[in-house]
Design a protein that fits this description.
The protein is α/β, with parallel strands linked by helices and 360 residues long. It has 2 domains: 203 residues, Isopropylmalate Dehydrogenase; 129 residues, Isopropylmalate Dehydrogenase (3-Layer(aba) Sandwich), CATH 3.40.718.10. Helix content is 41%, strand content 19%. The protein contains 13 helices and 12 strands. The strands form 2 sheets. Strands 2-1-3-12-11-4-5-10-8-9 form a 10-stranded mixed β-sheet, sandwiched between helices. Strands 6-7 form a two-stranded antiparallel ribbon. A hairpin with a 5-residue loop joins strand 6 and strand 7. Helix 8 runs parallel beside helix 9 and helix 11 crosses helix 13. The structure holds nicotinamide-adenine-dinucleotide. Nicotinamide-adenine-dinucleotide (NAD) binds next to helix 4.
């Protein structure tokens, strides 16, 4: 079966890391005899420079036609002066909403070789493998009404609306249950049902849906406790499912458990399994153009793409094993090298992963 992948490098280090991911994808295609075509398009500041729009219609058209998208990162100081609608980040928000990417998957995996980079004690994080499933297109970040208004007494008041429909809750919870079936078989649904009615409904709908997944163990946790448990005993979790705002905060906290932002992939999926795969980090203008960027988060995003959009879990396993192997060999980009340790460049790291790829 043939697949098409759109590559959107974006800005600054995005231009350096996406080509490394492409190299890895090309080698996996050879090894597994996959028919995957790739194409490039512009997004973010690069698209604004070329076409005056951070998400030009031609990019959106290619994105709609692709089975999956690999994105680098967008934004940077060259674009900070632009109007909000022309900012690179707007391109990213628009493509996510145009493609209906409601499910954001953020794994937090501790590589044994990097255990000292974590802010927590090694025994708390070694072997850590959590998947946070965050609802991405609803909740308080999108709810109406919202705004800042003037009250009768002259004081200003800011307000937002925390709103989730049953169908929105059901589809994200279904995604979490199905992922848990393929992993450790446990889902922790995070809410604030002791205070927020919207999350009382969240809890009810998730509980109802659990009946369809008898093999998956469901637990509920209030978000304040979940934040505490993530730094107290993170290995208790398998899959965490939660709304947009709680997921935003918890996934960043979980990310830091693993040490380096240069190692963290993500996927954002829609109902038909199409997805954008991107590193969790930004465009790192401070190190752009110097060969210092760690490409592993983007390479690991390609592994997620093979697993979740392109039905090639063996290719995903193969990439993850190769990343483990280059770390075992002691190869490190500067962000994970530690002081006084020799480091390799972005492309040397990409080449090393390509060499380490082996069909199992
Ligand atoms: P950042 O993630 O770009 O960088 C934070 C720090 O981490 C920097 O010191 C950077 O050098 C380092 N870093 C990030 N990725 C790295 C990598 N792969 N290898 C080695 N080191 C890495 O966050 P920031 O500095 O707050 O933001 C820079 C720009 O990126 C801003 O314009 C921001 O809006 C944008 N941004 C984009 C995305 C996205 O495209 N999804 C996400 C976050 C930030």
């Amino acid at each position: 079966m043939s697949h098409s992948v759109l590559l959107l490098p974006g800005d600054y280090i995005g231009q350096e890391i996406v080509p490394e991911a492409e190299k890895v994808l090309a080698r996996v295609c050879e090894l597994y005899d996959l028919d995957i075509s790739t194409d490039y398009a512009l997004i973010g500041g690069a698209a604004y420079d070329a076409e005056g729009d951070p998400l030009p219609p031609s990019t959106l058209e290619k994105a709609r036609a692709a089975d999956a998208i690999v994105l680098g990162a967008v934004g940077g100081p060259a674009y900070d002066h632009l109007d909000r609608d022309l900012r690179p980040e707007k391109g990213l928000l628009r493509i996510r909403s145009e493609l209906g990417l409601f499910g954001n998957l953020r794994p937090a995996i501790m590589y044994p070789q990097l255990v000292d980079a974590s802010s927590l004690k090694p025994e708390l994080v070694s072997g850590l493998d959590i998947l946070i499933v965050r609802e991405l297109t609803g909740g308080i970040y999108f709810g109406q009404p919202r705004g800042i208004r003037r009250l009768e007494n002259g004081e200003r008041e800011g307000f937002n609306t925390y709103v989730y429909s049953e169908s929105e809750i059901r589809r994200i919870a279904r995604m979490a249950f199905e992922l848990a079936q393929k992993r450790g078989g446990r889902v922790c649904s995070v809410d604030k049902a002791n205070v927020l009615e919207a999350t009382v409904l969240w809890r009810e709908v998730v509980t109802e849906l659990a009946a369809d997944y008898p093999g998956v163990e469901l637990e509920h946790m209030y978000v304040d406790n979940a934040a505490m448990q993530l730094v107290r005993a993170p290995k208790q979790f398998d899959v965490i499912v939660t709304g947009n705002m709680f997921g935003d905060i918890l996934s960043d906290a979980a990310a830091m458990l693993t040490g380096s932002i240069g190692m963290l992939p993500s996927a954002s999926l829609n109902e038909s399994g199409q997805g954008i795969y991107e590193p969790c980090h930004g465009s790192a203008p401070d190190i752009a153009g110097q060969g210092k960027a760690n490409p592993l988060a983007t390479i690991l995003s390609v592994a997620m793409m093979l697993r979740y959009s392109l039905a090639c879990p063996a290719g995903a396993d193969c990439i993850e094993a190769a990343v483990g192997q280059v770390l075992d060999q002691g190869l490190r980009t500067p962000d994970i090298a530690g002081s006084g340790v020799a480091s390799v460049s972005t492309s040397q790291m990409g080449d090393a992963v390509v060499s380490a790829l082996q069909k199992s």
